[in-house]
From TrEMBL:
GO molecular function, one term: hydrolase activity, hydrolyzing O-glycosyl compounds
Protein name: Glycosyl hydrolase family 4 C-terminal domain-containing protein
InterPro entries listed in its UniProt record: GH4_Enzyme_sf, Glyco_hydro_4, Glyco_hydro_4_C, Lactate_DH/Glyco_Ohase_4_C
Lineage summary: unclassified sequences, metagenomes, ecological metagenomes
Cofactor needs: NAD(+); Mn(2+)
Matching SUPFAM superfamilies: LDH C-terminal domain-like
Boundaries of every Glycosyl hydrolase family 4 C-terminal domain copy: 51-262
Biological processes annotated in GO: carbohydrate metabolic process
PANTHER family: 6-PHOSPHO-BETA-GLUCOSIDASE-RELATED (PTHR32092), ALPHA-GALACTOSIDASE (PTHR32092:SF6)
Species of the source: marine sediment metagenome
Keywords annotated in UniProt: Carbohydrate metabolism, Glycosidase, Hydrolase, Manganese, Metal-binding, NAD
Amino acid sequence: FSNPMARVCLAIKRTAPNLKFVGLCHQIGFLNYHLPRMVKKKLDNLKLKPYGLNHFGFLMGLEELASGKDLMPEFNSKAKEYFKQHEDRFEFSTLTFEVYKRFSYLPYVGDNHLGEYLQFGEEFTETQDMIDWIDNTDKHGKRIYRRVLRHYKRLKEGRYLKKGILSKGTSGERAIPIIEAIITDEKSYESAVNIPNDGIIENLPQDLVVECPVTVDKDGVHGIKWGMLPKDIAAILRIEATIQDLCVEAILKKSKDNAIASLA
């Protein structure tokens, strides 16, 4: 869960190659919210196929789970108008629209992360956007803190929480469902998990942690192979892959040169 998650995962892979791990990010939640509204189907009847890197991935496929019907043509026909009507500068806004136009696949991570990895992102981002994003995140964190503190004080007084008082539904985070699927051998499908590449995306470095769909059963988490990404998408992802490589090597080897190179 901890950022920079992709780099943390890559460091784990290199220092403990036999250790099983997954990296999780809730950025896919943007699509989980919007897609059912766009294609008029329930989320549990949609099979999302996002591929790429954490905070830098693309929706490569979308199917109706019950029928196997390819929903990408419908998605692409509706996406531009839909997201224009639901534009949010902290989610899908001008940078997302520009990348979608240039590469023909929607980057599902939102402007607030996409701008970290593309040099031309600064053309679509105002300084005030970043200030407001930090302020909003800070305010949200303080609201959560006050709520948790209030419940903690009740517990100290012996006033136990009623069912549903913390949350009326699930959080949307996927760690517990993944653990449950391993324990129960559920053979579940998770749309966005970070694991070692190992042939999942053929034209990205194999010594890399990628974000992809997986199946989960008693034997663990298994990445679903995609094959080759479009060459232009693979090219921009490889730049970030090299930066991650240099960054992790800088830490593991305590190399100032690699650290400077990763920032360059």
